[in-house]
Amino acid sequence: MKEYWNSLASLLGVLAFSHSLLQLVFPPELRLLSLKFLSRIFHLFSSYCYFDITEIDGVNTNELYNAVQIYLSSFISLNGNRLSLTRALNSSATTFGQSNNDCIVDTFGGVTVVWEHVVIQRQSQTFVWRPFPEEKRGFTLKIKKKDKSLILHSYLDYIMEKSNEIRRKNQDRLLYTNSRGGSLDSRGHPWESVPFKHPSTFDTLAIDPDNKREIMDDLKDFADGQSFYHKTGRAWKRGYLLYGPPGTGKSSMIAAMANYLSYDIFDLELTEVHNNSELRKLLMKTSSKSIIVIEDIDCSVNLTNRKEKKNKSNDLETRHVSGVEDGVNSTVTLSGLLNFTDGLWSCCGSERIFVFTTNHVEKLDPALLRSGRVDKHVYMSYCSYPTLKIQLKNYLGYDETDLDSDVLNQLVDVVSKAEMTPADISEILIKKQSCNHKAVTELLEAMKLRADNNLKCGSLGERENSSDEEQEKRALECPKGLILNSLARKKRTWRR
Ligand SMILES: Nc1ncnc2c1ncn2[C@@H]1O[C@H](COP(=O)(O)OP(=O)(O)OP(=O)(O)O)[C@@H](O)[C@H]1O
């Protein structure tokens, strides 16, 4: 036993001596050089090439690293033995990631590639302006030399595109609003955001099915239209005007659009904007793939018809935003607003939809509504039979076949005469969810009553053409809501 320990000690002694000898004749710099040389020889004869994508490029975060991470997480299965799990800010989805120094195989365009996630402990940091993470992370892409020129660029482009898509899908949409009084938040941003969780979708939206199809197709064409807009030299943006009586679903439509396209919403409160330059700054801080909304534009900006105003003033610059509610005047002008939607500054981002809503379309200046600024005018109307069917399905789960044929005929007959908004109808249907038949009966009664009242207070044509005095007289005589209906009919006339 003693002999054994003796020989072990002398062996260790020899090893220590050889190690110090090696250090002396073969210093670390030389060793590094020989390693590099060996690796060059290896790569020269290897049929593979390697690409390192580090997490931090110099002092900046490498976008490609994040993209690869998200892309790979989309097909790492739950069956893996060791996966990293992450959840981003404002995200309701968990992301699965490759564990340290693991490899994963992918195929693109018939070519197989291997990804390795390389994690190395960073050496202790001396003073740096920006502290780096303790670990140095990166991906190494291993690809056959002969395939490199075939796929490398298209593969990386595909990864960027796919990761953006996944990121948008996983991340909750945000609803931004401009801060009160134009103040900036702690990050110097003029918009405040909250997660956007509105449940409205085109399935739940009660509008004419043909109209709905047309809008959905238009939005899809817009979202897929990058090359079209590029080819035709147009800014990649689209303008919508949603108009109609209150409660016909203008806000619900905006939410459905955002959910359909997975876009964020920037809800611009014009009365909080002090001047054109503030408006421009707000625009510059909006992101791509977003819907910029100005609700009730007739209430926030004094945009009465240009022709009517011409005698009073020819200068667009003199038209001011009026803080209608608080009486504060600011100096955002109509031309500032037109530049916002259509000028050079409107192109500082891309893939954005401008949506204006109003209950009084006749008050808006035609300059604001011309093509290019507002490409699509959507009238949000009272309930018709096709839209009523959607609401019955949404609230009661009823199809036509679930209704008694007599009740069905009465509903078909009375619905357009009643001129009720989807909001009116939902108010009735929402109360009676425990007893569906009772809800339908109550709805039918309410519709008949409305239709009777409409009849008593004159035909639609009469109301549309009546003078303001007559309308006021009717307001006193007729039940609440009918004068509103008459105004809304006027808007419909404008649409035609
Ligand atoms: N077309 C519709 N489809 C489904 N639900 C609707 C529709 N219109 C109104 N509603 C219901 O009525 C409520 C109010 O609708 P919404 O706020 O979208 O109307 P609006 O036209 O924007 O009204 P306002 O002009 O007063 O802002 C919604 O929460 C929704 O439940």
Descriptors:
binds adenosine-5'-triphosphate; hydrolase; disordered C terminus; Rossmann fold; 7-stranded mixed β-sheet; 47% helix; ATP hydrolysis activity; 496 residues
Structure in words:
The chain folds into three domains: 23-170, no CATH class; 174-379, 3-Layer(aba) Sandwich (Rossmann fold); 385-495, no CATH class. With 496 residues, it is an alpha/beta fold. It is elongated. β2 (56-57) and β3 (60-61) form a beta hairpin. The chain is built from 19 helices and 17 strands. The protein has helices at residues 2-25, 28-45, 63-73, 145-170, 209-223, 226-232, 250-261, 276-284, 297-300, 306-310, 334-342, 366-369, 385-396, 405-418, 422-431, 436-456, 460-465, 468-477, 482-495, and strands spanning 48-54, 56-57, 60-61, 83-86, 95-98, 103-108, 111-121, 135-144, 174-178, 191-195, 237-243, 264-267, 290-294, 320-322, 329-333, 352-358, 376-379. It has a seven-stranded mixed beta sheet, sandwiched between helices. It has a four-stranded antiparallel beta sheet with strand order 1-8-7-6, covered by helices on one side. It has a two-stranded antiparallel sheet with strand order 2-3. The model is unreliable at 304-329 and 480-496 (pLDDT under 50). α15 packs antiparallel against α16 (436-456). 47% of the residues lie in helices and 18% in strands. Bound molecules: adenosine-5'-triphosphate (ATP). The site of adenosine-5'-triphosphate (ATP) has 16 residues, from α7 and α15.
